[in-house]
Specification:
The protein has 26 helices and 19 strands. The chain is α/β, with parallel strands linked by helices. The strands form four sheets. It has an eight-stranded mixed barrel, surrounded by six helices. A five-stranded mixed sheet has the order 4-5-3-8-9, sandwiched between helices. The structure holds ligand C2E and calcium ion (2 copies). One calcium ion (CA) binds next to strand 15.
């Protein structure tokens, strides 16, 4: 018979478990198998404590009646039934926490569960064979051989859980290590104390308190869980990936990158984008047993999965709208998909699937296979951009513009170059689109303007007879609210006349953001800057902007010139473009002039300005100055 002190331990254990269960149910975070296993584990300890409680209280009557004797007997039996499940449940829970459970296939799972199934069946059927224990008519408990098996199985599961813990030690956050060690230590201490002092029945209480510790740290995975969508966060992804690469585990990674279309965003702001994220994550959670979901960026999810089928499911679902309250939303999205060991060779590379600038949408919504290489190259370019800013390896080159009549030097175009210490020479066609996506374009743009101002301040361009220097503008720069203001600050600092700067902007941009462009150009012109339309004739020709925007010069793209040399149709396009721009009283520049024949052709058409390799490639500032000083000297000599 037990002392009533025992009842105190059991009541405390019971109350603690109840609290843990209540708390777990109140927090809505129950969708993961790990959470459900935790709940099961707690319920198991709760029941064990409950049966022990009943037994202790009934035993307290002193001389138990026949009824309470039966009750005590039943409680003892049920306690055995629930307590036998404890160690296996704990082991399963540990396997889930460290992510080892989903690696086990069904035969392995069955093998692991076998000792549990055998011992539990043994305990359940004990009333038939009394193999586990036997209760003498006077109430004395006699241990049977079977109890040994139960203990051995429990020890096996504890040891297995422990071993897995050690193996995955470095895949856990420090917080988890502490929490799990705390639980294990408490449980082992409880068992030891009970072994040494059979009268102090502290084991269940120790386990219950240990569980509470797990709840507060492991289950309440604040450090691993994203608050908005309740999936794993980036931090968790990094830790898990590190382990995947350390162990050479095979996984498929799928990144979903979302973007709300602008009207929705303006309408409802942050709440709308959060609602969308939640809607998408709800869909992803539907089958979460088979994969793990992470929020890798503010607008992106990463899924690590063991089977390939996931891509198809997600691709199909993303084509359908998502319901945000009463409205249906079709988010803009891109998918990036890769086999983790074969195509991605480090945690950093997998993260790039969420972080790196993607190829343009026109090239497809899914980036996978060969196109992952573009992604990695883009990411390399992105790194080079950051390096460039740090190491000051950007340089502005200048390419001359000559007058059509007389072919004298008229102006120059500033063209950016990047001499990267790792990748070597980088050209703007590659890195400008990347810089536009990640915002570095603003810093590059400011650098170009500063360099050009410095050149102008030296007085050399004016001495060489140049009217201005052309600077390329990206639409991202124009979108900045205080762009013109910043520009004025810079040129004020160098005391440059605004008319010494001529900004070039591409036509396709004009077509897309016409209203903004109109405002920006007006502001520029009011401040005395000049403006050119760049790349005329590429993409869709927007006559409207040629007509209405106040450009000083229209730059006809080199492709038009080259086509004019190749075909009759091309010649007609060039001739008519020139004629039309003439009629609109704008000046015309043709770029890409490489041969004397082209010069003659353009002269006949009456083009105002020429630019191209025929005169000079883009060269560094010292080379540019040297080239024209030499030319003016030979002219003077002649
Ligand atoms: P773009 O504005 O059309 O610049 C003209 C491009 O054609 C330059 O390429 C130039 O080197 C090249 N080019 C000029 N004449 C000839 C020729 O006779 N034959 C051939 N084959 N090519 C010629 P680059 O320097 O590689 O620049 C590429 C593009 O990068 C530029 O196209 C421009 O859109 C952009 N870019 C360059 N610098 C900047 C910058 O500072 N800011 C911004 N936003 N974009 C820039
Ligand atoms: Ca240009
Ligand atoms: Ca061009």
């Amino acid at each position: 018979m037990h002392d009533v002190n025992d009842a105190g331990f059991f009541v405390s254990a019971f109350a603690t478990c109840l609290l843990v269960i209540l708390f777990t149910l109140l927090r809505r975070q129950r969708h993961k198998p790990q959470n459900r296993m935790f709940l099961l584990l707690t319920v198991d300890i709760l029941l064990s404590a409950f049966f022990m409680m009943v037994r202790a209280f009934e035993g307290y009557h002193g001389n138990p009646s026949a009824d309470s004797f039966v009750l005590i007997e039943k409680s003892r039996y049920l306690y055995f039934v629930t307590h036998t499940a404890l160690a296996p449940l704990f082991c399963a829970y540990i396997l889930m926490v460290i992510g080892a459970a989903d690696r086990l296939n069904w035969p392995k799972r069955l093998a692991l569960a076998a000792p549990f199934i055998v011992t539990e069946l043994m305990v359940l059927t004990n009333p038939l064979h009394h193999f586990v224990y036997y209760v003498k008519p006077d109430g004395d408990h006699v241990r049977g051989m079977g109890e040994m098996f139960v203990y051995v199985a429990a020890a096996f599961y504890m040891a297995a859980g422990f071993l897995q813990l050690l193996i995955h030690w470095y895949a856990m956050t420090v917080k988890r290590r502490i929490a799990i060690s705390y639980f294990v230590t408490l449980t082992v201490l409880g068992i030891l104390i009970q072994l040494l002092f059979p009268n102090i029945r502290i084991e269940l209480l120790a386990e219950a308190v240990g569980l509470a510790g797990l709840l507060l740290s492991v289950e309440n995975e604040d450090d691993r869980i994203d608050a908005t969508t309740e999936v794993y966060n980036r931090n968790a992804l990094i830790l898990d990936l590190d382990e995947i690469f350390r162990k050479g585990m095979k996984r498929y990674a799928l990144c979903i990158r979302l973007r709300l279309r602008e009207p929705y965003l303006l309408l409802e702001g942050v709440s709308a984008s959060n609602a969308l994220l939640e809607a998408v994550s709800d869909f992803l959670k539907e089958n979460e047993v088979w994969y793990r979901i992470y929020r890798v960026t503010p607008n992106g999810f990463m899924i690590l999965s063991m089977d390939e089928g996931l891509l198809e499911v997600v691709e199909k679902r993303m084509k359908e709208p998502f319901a945000l309250g009463a409205t249906e939303v079709r988010p803009e999205y891109r998918l990036v998909y890769a086999a983790v060991q074969e195509e991605m060779s480090s945690t950093g590379e997998v993260l790039l699937m969420g972080d790196a600038a993607l190829p343009p949408v026109e090239e497809g919504l899914l980036v996978s296979g060969e196109r992952l290489k573009i992604l990695l190259r883009r990411a390399e370019a992105e790194e080079a951009l950051h390096r460039g800013l740090q190491e000051h390896s950007f340089e502005v080159f200048y390419q001359p513009v000559h007058e059509g009549r007389g072919e004298k030097l008229y102006a120059a175009e500033a063209l950016i170059r990047l001499h990267d210490s790792v990748l070597g020479e980088l050209y703007p066609d590659e890195f400008i689109p990347v810089a536009e996506q990640n915002g570095i374009i603003n810093e590059i743009g400011a650098f170009v303007v500063q360099e050009v101002c410095r050149f102008l301040q030296s007085g050399v361009p004016e001495k060489l007879g140049m009217h201005h220097i052309n600077v390329n503008l990206s639409v991202v720069q124009c979108m900045q609210e205080d762009f013109v203001l910043k520009l004025k600050e810079i040129i004020g600092h160098y005391r440059i006349r605004p008319s010494m700067l001529n900004f070039e902007i591409t036509e396709s941009v004009a077509a897309r953001d016409y209203a903004i462009l109109e405002r920006v150009i007006r502001e520029f012109k009011e401040n005395g800057f000049k403006f050119s339309m760049d790349d005329y004739g590429t993409g869709y020709s927007n006559m409207h902007s040629v007509f209405c925007l106040d450009f000083d010069v229209i730059k006809i793209d080199k492709s038009i010139l080259w086509e004019a040399e190749r075909s009759e149709r091309g010649r007609i396009i060039l001739e008519n473009s020139v004629r039309m721009i003439r009629v609109l009283k704008k000046q015309i520049l043709v770029e890409g002039v490489e041969t004397r024949a082209q010069v003659e052709l353009l002269k006949k058409l009456g083009v105002d300005y020429f630019q191209g390799y025929y005169y000079s490639r883009p060269v560094s500032r010292p080379d540019f100055v040297k080239l024209y000083q030499e030319r003016s000297e030979t002219e003077n000599d002649g």
